[in-house]
Amino acid sequence: MATSWVNSAERIGSDLHLELTGRGGRRAALIRALREAVRSGRLAPGTRLPPYRSLAADLGVARNTVADAYAELVAEGWLTARQGSGTRVAERAETLRPATRVPRQAPPRARGPRHDLMQGTPDASTFPRTAWLASYRRALQQAPNEVFGPGDPAGRVELREALTEYLARARGVRTEPGRIVICSGFAHALRLLFGGGVLRGPLAVEAYGLGFHREVLAAAGVRTVPLPLDEHGARVDRLGRERAVLLTPAHQFPTGGPLHPARRAAVIDWARARGGLVLEDDYDGEFRYDRKPVGAVQGLDPEHVIHIGSVSKSLSPAVRLGWMVLPQRYVDAVLAAKGDREAWASVLDQLSLADFVVSGAYDRHVRRMRQRYRGRRDRLVAALAEHAPHIEATGIAAGLHAVLRLPPGTEASTVKAAAWQGIALDGLAAFRHPDTDMAAGDGLVVGYATPSEHAYGPALEALCRALPPP
């Protein structure tokens, strides 16, 4: 029986390693890669290939490039195309292989999960290559010679100025370029603040959060104290003798929901009264779907909040750029912890991001992705309503993931069932602080941003098969 185009697309993306290299442009490279995939047997006779749009999006090429490549291979007899049946590998493709013996290939590496529903990563195929390249070229052409020598450990002033305007407009942050320090992401910010001796523990954290961040803090010798959560976010009224607290107030990770306005005010009052500090992880602050974005807590008191953000989810984790918006009294200490040269983000990437923001390309990209991810979320909710109406999705007003609430005692078995379906995801318990006595119940943390567009439907089908019955 012929395999579906979904399975074929997965092999194209992983096992077949279609690399568009060599002479003759993208079209010629794609033709060579597909021809070799058929010749070597990696694409079996009868296999249905992805539609033009899907393969073009995954490979980052124009749809016409894929269409032309398919047409030429059909003409050569490698592929067949019929209305309503799509494009498939020709059943007689075996006869097209050369008579000479093909060298035996090394056995393929073990395949990973077929469906990636892990939280925290965007759809890699949507990276705005053309707009980013335009910004990179402009930045490179306009860069003064000093850019290519020793620079400022705070980061390029062009980026800090662009962020000052953007964060004020989009997130309600009150700052100036001299109070922004560029870093390579949130974890890097934690290492600078605590590993560099700027701040000391203990640190209050939310009872559910990223274990990786707790590991970074533990490596710096920081003891973390969990705060319980409820439907209004972290219970900041439970703050004890700690002098600092780490929160995700825009969209609590992973349970979802913003920090209630009364608790925002309360944590600022606590910081002022104790001379304390709020570390604001602006997690998913730009991706809200059902109402306007919630402004940053930093806007309530810039002298008692460190606002930390990055482009790892709004743009790509491959662009290692983030920022700390600091109270004035911490700027010199953070720069001293960063050092003279080694812990800097790429200056050319900084200039490119500055241009990307100033030109409006970043805003356009975020709006486009907000619409795309909202559609992904809606498809998840619709699939549950049809196939598992007893499963509730929560935390869906924002972000790149949802929490699927499971019947008590079923989380571990459901995670195992998902693995049997070839799905990579986490259970809610994976994010629980080891010292908390709070239990958020059983659930799955389902990321809906990572799969490419053509792979998302099969991922949802597999997910629904893994869910426990009513």
Describe the structure.
There is one protein chain. This protein is an alpha/beta fold. Helix content is 38%, strand content 13%. Strands 4-12-11-10-9-5-6 form a seven-stranded mixed β-sheet, with helices on both faces. It has a four-stranded antiparallel β-sheet with strand order 13-14-17-16, with helices on one face. Strand 1 and strand 2 form a beta hairpin. Residues 1-16, 93-104 and 106-110 have low confidence and may be disordered.
Q: What's the topology here?
A:
Blueprint lengths: L4 H9 L11 H16 L11 H8 L3 H14 L2 E4 L3 E4 L25 E2 L12 H14 L14 H15 L8 E4 L2 H10 L7 E4 L4 H9 L4 E4 L1 E2 L2 E2 L9 E4 L13 H14 L2 E5 L23 E6 L11 E4 L5 H8 L8 H12 L2 H27 L4 E3 L6 E5 L5 H10 L2 E2 L1 E2 L15 E5 L5 H14 L4
Helix pairs in contact: 2-4, 3-4, 5-11, 6-11, 7-8, 12-14, 13-14
